[in-house]
């Protein structure tokens, strides 16, 4: 458009533009940053509408009493009672959010139900262990893929393939592997002495199955992101290091690691968020009854059939809170690094 | 580098005003497109499973039967399907009703979770909708256990129309049993004891060389709490909340899961799985079931039976219908559920002896529906004998007036009718689950603890003591709510 071009070149809005509507004129005169915020307003409004408003309503609901019968879905205001129930192992659900009490003797805590029947610990454990292994294995794969060798393209495809498998299919694969009469998984693991006879019904075995399933799949994601970081490293730095006599370990520690740390941290952040929300993989493989995650609890409370919306809201709000807190660890810890998330 | 804003405008080639205009047009168009969907007209919409959708084909036999039974010829029923799993269908129904959507007009609801919907005022009282004739038929002829799960537990008013009942049945390989020298002639009508059952299963297994004596469902899921375990404790004379008159009103019921009959039932099942090596084994009972049953739901248990590897198989009648379709019909028999104690030895009235878990589905009316009159007509038409028999013929769903099976010809109307006598016995001894507004919550506690006890993770006593605590707490919770 010629008028715009004129305006751009001149750096000033010509007279004929000013005759237009006042808002548009005001917009034209904004600074670059102000204009950017103006454009972001719809997104912020939408975000407020679809994220913060529901979160607020969830919190309001969580302060009300459960009503399992009658036309009213919620009872009167009960303060933090639902939260107290959820956090003290007194929730009206088959699995507990957490059920820990202090005791006089070592180790000073007592578990009301086994640790792996408590959603908080299942989820935290799952997130920490799976992200750790995915990072280590993903790093290894990325280092291999970064080399030049024959058939590299095919190895790449092979490594990335699990990432292309839909979650439900992935869950079904592991479900069938450990379904007696169908898969060989149970027999194999029992022969190795690692699993009991019914791994899908045993919380401990089932937790391991979910972990392995997730690591198998998501390592590819880590490998991809880390590889992207690796390939952006300036190769001449290695040549200099070699001339200077740096060992492979030193080259890794002093060149590779610091340079890909930003990419690595972003990848880990993404994976951690995903892992904290795990649901589909569990539901389609071993089931939420055996391995309850936080999201499992929310779904169970909301759609379990007994109308306990107050409790469901409390569980949901706590889940959001836990994920938020856990994720902010990254943001706080790495605030001052180059990879800081601003 | 600080970019010059004017330069940037040039490089993008799009002015601010045209960008904002285009973006708002796209946004507005998108939103309008999403909200613009209307509801279809001219049909009663029902929410059900794929089987229901199949038989409600507009060209099919059932529509004709409904019209013949008095439904206006310009009314058709179209079925929207949900997930096949009952619990997922329950949450879908709950979402629709919670949101007070006007469609679907009719809901197909599991007899195991209709009462919570009634108590939450998400159904319509049918007493002032259906004709007196129909109400009389339901009151006098319908299977009583099924109708009880369709009534408001406090007022006794009818809120749902039983579409078909379903019963847990014991299916067995008649050919293998006879080869092993058993006379199976009265097996279809005379229940045997669980002890005899386990001996027969073990014996026939040894004689025929098949892999397993018995498969059933014992995974940690609703089916264990409502049905397979409920069935077994009933045959032992035990119950979750005392006798059969304590089923449908929660709040302060006496919890009886830690009583001896319930413990015996668990000990028996553990013996079936783990044999006499188990420290809690019942003496005289055989090891007959694979340990994998603690992971089995219906189809997992049916697999090995359909593959010819099992002597005895507990399942719903659908499984026997499939066996007939697969050409195994002549080899499969059906017997009433074996018993743990005789009826007169049972601690509670109506328990002990043979028992069959009650399943099956009802139809309910959506209170927010805009087609209530048409939908009521559909319900009226389903409550006629001709329609019930047509439903049985096209889908194998047992008529809610079970006696109708006596007079039908199996050749003509479907193989399940061959087992009419056994199914009637099941109907007479049907035990509904104790369904209340908090049953889903209690059921989850039950299946979890029972499954742990079956797996040997907890002793029967420990598991049932833990369960009793949870159930008492949940009865107390709902009791408190009543006071306010």
From TrEMBL, chain A:
**Boundaries of each ABC transmembrane type-1 domain copy?**
120-330
* Bilayer topology annotation: Multi-pass membrane protein
Q: What is its main location?
A: membrane
Segments passing through the bilayer: 35-56, 119-145, 157-178, 206-230, 251-270, 308-333
Per the UniProt entry, what are the Gene Ontology biological process annotations, in alphabetical order?
transmembrane transport
Domain of life, source organism? Archaea
List where in the cell it is found.
Answer: Cell membrane
Q: Looking at the UniProt record for this protein, which Gene Ontology cellular component terms does it annotate, in alphabetical order?
A: plasma membrane
Query: Pfam families attached here?
Result: BPD_transp_1 (PF00528)
Q: Which InterPro entries match?
A: MetI-like, MetI-like_sf
Q: Which UniProt keywords apply?
A: Cell membrane, Membrane, Transmembrane, Transmembrane helix, Transport
Family, according to the entry, reads as follows:
Belongs to the binding-protein-dependent transport system permease family.
**Name of the protein this chain belongs to:** Carbohydrate ABC transporter membrane protein 1, CUT1 family
From TrEMBL, chain B:
List the transmembrane segments: none
Q: Where is the composition biased (Low complexity)?
A: 91-100
Please give the SUPFAM superfamilies that the UniProt record associates with this protein: Periplasmic binding protein-like II
Does the entry feature the keyword Signal, yes or no? yes
Q: Which UniProt keywords apply?
A: Signal, Sugar transport, Transport
In the record, which residues are listed under signal peptide? none
For region Disordered, the annotated ranges are 80-100
Superkingdom field: Archaea
**Family of this protein:** Belongs to the bacterial solute-binding protein 1 family.
What this protein is called in its record is ABC-type sugar transport system, periplasmic component
| Protein species of origin | Natronococcus occultus SP4
